[in-house]
Specification:
mainly alpha; Helix Hairpins; about 0% strand
Amino acid sequence: MTVDILIALGVAVELACCAGLVAMRRAIDRLHYAGAATTVGPALVAAAVCVEEGLFTTNGLNAVVVAVLLAVLGAALATATARAIRLRERGTLESSRAERERGS
């Protein structure tokens, strides 16, 4: 029962992320949904595997390692992509005066 709920939540999160990717118009907005797709869904699926198989089994440890790698590498890829988008749109990575004044 718990495994089914975790899998269902993981799939629902991934579907919501896909819907967000389709709905957003700007690439920088799509990155937020792509980031969630590499963290929340895989973590829920890994939790389901660990509940079913046990954490200290080959399958459980593999699921945890894959979820952690997706989270870390997904965040690194999102950061690199956001920097490339900003560089392409503004020509620089430096913040503007208005951005520095408002603290963002």
